[in-house]
Amino acid sequence: MIKYNLLINNSIIMNKNIIILGVQWGDEGKGKVIDLLSKNVNYVVRYQGGNNAGHTIIINEKKIILHLIPSGIMHKNVKTIIGNGVVISPNNLLSEIKELENLNIKIKNRLFLSTMCPLVLEYHIAMDLAQENFLKKKLIGTTGKGIGPSYTDKISRYALRIDDLFNKDIFAKKLKQIVDYYNFQLIYFYKSNSVNYKKILEHTLDISENITKISIDVSDFLYKARKNNKKIIFEGAQGTFLDIDHGTYPYVTCSNTIAGGALTGTGIGPLHVDYVLGVVKSYSTRVGSGPFPTEIFDKYNLHITNKGKEFGSTTGRKRRVGWLDIIFLKKAIIINSLTSLCLTKLDVLDGLDTVKLCVSYITSSGKKIFNLPIKQEDWNHIKPVYEIHPGWKENTCGITNILNLPQAAFNYIKRIEELTNINISIISTGPDRNNVIILDHFL
């Protein structure tokens, strides 16, 4: 019998506002977790990223992939909001709405956008692809969706936003200046094709009403919701270490993916957040270039890739695979002030002889360190130090009671808690929304 002594808190905590975010490099399974918990809330709010992210939800063996619309849309009692920290591709948003409506998922009066969301238009995509082509082997590994250039416009203070669509004349003048600016770079520096101003203008204005009619003042909306005791989930995209400030720079995304991004990306105050849930895989993956100390290339890579279906939901790219890195995880706990963890994809490790946890690094000088390197160049000269644990041959997929886990799987989970000193409140044991073990009812 399992020795039942995880750091479990079975009290029911009636929190109202909760941030749910990934604490690795994205693809941790946030979509499923948010979908699972959304049935208990009134609103789900997306606070950063764009359609370069993807949340995969599996319901009754049917896969649904969301790129912009928050995961709570799957519950008819939940309203969904996209905050100002998100960059919006009008084409992708409207396409996603249509796909959901074709699945008989009602969108009307259930999806709202901040008027301050920057737009992602054709010239952003052209620039994204041109820049990656220019970098060649040193490329960042973007999705090519134009997200980076759109955020660049935002920081440079000449982005076109949803609020610009309310005045077509002003929008047209601003667009002309921006397209001329981009075309000059595309043609003369990147030796790439230009974009057509008139086509972008006509198409964007044709669909603009579909965007403006669902746009609102999000911060005011959420403030009133809080006053009326509504429950809110703030949904992160990507993961902690793709954060523009706190990630493995420069191999990061262009927004703040950490918990603090929920504040700036929606306009809600810090005292209005009650709980922060970090979602972490039982192993590690990342897409694109950048430091990844625990990356593996052996038979375990093949097992995890195939069993975990580790291919990007947005790009289809094969993900890089590695063991769970406790050093990164402990840093994520600090950065996000996590309340607890949700451990996902435990079942992917079924059948392995051994499982490993990275607990420190060895530098090029032979020194053992227990934190992340400070200098970028040091990432190329560290090696992981592992704890090696027995694997388990039994099947964990679909288990919903902690007592039914194999002892080795239980010990692995317990060791993660010991090393990080934080509760694991949810364990995901399969792709379906019902394949979970709930250890802490916090909503």
Output the keywords.
443 residues; alpha/beta
Write the layout of secondary structure elements.
Elements lengths: L16 E6 L7 H9 L4 E4 L8 E5 L2 E5 L12 E4 L7 H13 L8 E4 L7 H14 L11 H10 L11 H21 L8 H16 L2 E2 L1 H10 L4 E4 L25 H4 L10 E7 L2 E3 L12 H9 L12 E3 L1 E2 H11 L3 E5 L9 E9 L5 E2 L13 E8 L16 H14 L3 E5 L7 E3 L5
Parallel strand pairs: 1-8, 1-9, 2-5, 2-8, 5-6, 6-7, 9-13, 12-14, 13-17
Antiparallel strand pairs: 3-4, 10-11, 14-15, 14-16, 17-18
Care to describe what's here?
This protein is α/β, with parallel strands linked by helices and 443 residues long. 30% of the residues lie in helices and 18% in strands. The chain contains eleven helices and 18 strands. It has helices spanning 30-38, 90-102, 122-135, 147-156, 168-188, 197-212, 218-227, 261-264, 299-307, 326-336, 407-420; strands at residues 17-22, 43-46, 55-59, 62-66, 79-82, 111-114, 215-216, 232-235, 275-281, 284-286, 320-322, 324-325, 340-344, 354-362, 368-369, 383-390, 424-428, 436-438. Helix 3 (122-135) crosses helix 4 and helix 3 runs parallel beside helix 5.
Structural class of the helix and strand makeup?
A: alpha/beta
Count of separate DSSP helical elements: 11
Strand order in the sheet with the most strands? 7-6-5-2-8-1-9-13-17-18
Strand content: 15-25%
Distance between the termini: 30 Å
How confident overall, as mean pLDDT? 91
Secondary-structure element order, N to C? EHEEEEHEHHHHEHEHEEHEEHEEEEHEE
Determine Rg (CA atoms, Å).
Answer: 22 Å
How would a textbook summarize the main sheet?
10 strands, mixed
Q: Count of DSSP E strands?
A: 18
Helix content: 25-40%
Name the shape in a single word: globular
Instruction: Return residue spans where pLDDT drops below 50 for at least 5 consecutive residues.
Output: 7-14
